[in-house]
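Q: I'm teaching a short session on how sequence maps to structure, and I want students to see two examples side by side rather than one. Could you give me a first protein with its sequence written out and its structure tokens following it? Keep the formatting plain so it prints cleanly on a handout.
A: Of course. Example one:
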Amino acid sequence: SCEVDIRGSRFSIYGLELEQAFFRKPFPPKLSLAHMQKLLRAKEPKKSAYSILLAHNPKYGETYFRWGSDLTLSGHYHGGIWRFSRHHGLAAPQAPVFPRFCCGDFYRGEQAMIVSAGLGEHTLPLRIHNPREVVEIVCRFAPEKGGGKRKPPGGGRLFRKAKDIRWQSQ
């Protein structure tokens, strides 16, 4: 993990590197919260900063939400070969049909997870209704205490609310 300050806002960034077994087809193991904590060397994200978890495989999204980061960024499923909607695709690299957390944005209370369909393919070099994408994420600054105006880009803290994260495909 690392911490950075950007325009007066503090970010803690965590990278989760899962063992190869978690990418096994067709029956990978479940990811327990305890194992994830061990891999990250952190019981939970630091509360003093806006926490971002980089986790390649969205299959374990529920565990990521339980760990508690403010924002999780993921991919791996490439939108599911054939994409039906913002959140639903046909298949994923680990062979589940209609995988959960296939693509799009997902929320649990104050937390958000964004799963990109990415630029490549998996298994079959085919993408149907599933355009390649690069995701842009915009976080808004919190208003001044006492209901004043928004802080300028040179200072302030980010909202800790998932609804204040906006993303779009490019």
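Q: Perfect. Now a second example for contrast.
A: Example two:
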Amino acid sequence: MRIISWNCNGAFRNKLRFISELEPDILIIQECEDLKKIEFDMFSKPIYEGYWFGGENKSKGLGFFIMHEGISSLPVMWEIEEDLVVPKVICYKDQKILLFSIWTWPPKYNWAIIQSIRKYSKIIRHFKTICMGDFNAPYIAEDERFQKNIYNVANEFRKQGMLSIYHERANVNFGSENEFTWFRHKKATQPYFLDYCFISQSLLPDVIAYRIERFQDWRFHSDHCPIVLEIK
């Protein structure tokens, strides 16, 4: 199962054919417009489930798509007041996985993630869990607030037996990444690490691959690079 998260930087209707080339089974899209504006026949794969989460601004929300006939989702109680930290139970083969699709922004930033982790802690302990998306949580050495921000989130995940798959596999600390997911003003000289994938430690043996797509391949479509998780 291939799960892809990408902040498309808006106008997803003009970009869906590009992300479709990565052949996602589940697609999480930040800054996605209302689904009524999208012509889904442009996908190379059929959409079996499609959802949009957001507020009054119908041009920017969170899109969630299932593009594999063998995958389905079950809803979990969720309120828009919790920002866009959206849980769903994913049914795949003979297993169920709890997947949080994430997009946070000012002023709450990652406080919304911490609140959700605490609220759903009992469910997280029951399921193998993936939390994936645009956390808007860079580590900035010169700014102590941004150092604490991602460490607070990571510590909260750690209490639930979860870790960042990128940092685990690359064996690097937060702030020491040698790959990046967001490039300010689409400039290669201004890289940051904003997009994360935290998973249950019990899910580690099922991970086939994790990667960040190359900035050079996506800079004309967005200031973010897609992140790709493949599990058995």
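Q: What should students look for in example two?
A: Point them to this: Helices lie at 16-20, 111-119, 121-126, 144-159, 165-170, 215-218. Also worth mentioning: DSSP finds six helices and 14 strands in the chain.
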